[in-house]
Amino acid sequence: MAPPREEIVKLFTEVIIAPSVSDVAKVVIAGKPNLRLLITGALPDPRIPGLTAKTVAGGLLVQTRDNGMVEDLELKVVTKRAPTAQELEDMKFAFKVAKHVKSNAVVYAKDGQTVGIGAGQMSRVDSARIAGLKAEEAARALGLPAPLTHGSAVASEAFLPFADGLLSMIAAGATAVIQPGGSMRDPEVIAAADEAGVAMVFTGMRHFRH
Question: pTM for this structure?
């Protein structure tokens, strides 16, 4: 198998971003036309507080940066069934990815990789359904017997306001759910999870990327 630096240039790649690059890798990358290399140096600590700004009509919207990390949270199991060790790891990974996905965001993960992403919808239910449909399309294209969302963990970056979003996630095959909690209908959502035998944890922290 070729070294990673040579494997990358075999793919259709337009930009490579890395903290540092060896001289040998620079030569390999320079040999591929129209491939840009950006060297960032050491990456900043994502936990450092700061401000972000967005342009709006007549000015700027300035707000504190979302520097919350799921590793720093005390997750609360709210269902009768607790997640397995693998489900918990996939939950954390999915919630980490959901932080960077446009709200309303729903992310399915299994075995440390994303298997379905729904983003930017007005309805959280639609995000859950879109992610499930994408997983079904991928399964058909790959000739898989079932979508990889079956047996997955799923993250919602904000609370589930109704049980319908959870039911869509369960229909896609999710067996564990991570969400901030805090909805007036949390008991209804938890009851639906218990009825389906799904594990659910609350983070107490939500992300919203608009």
Answer: 0.82
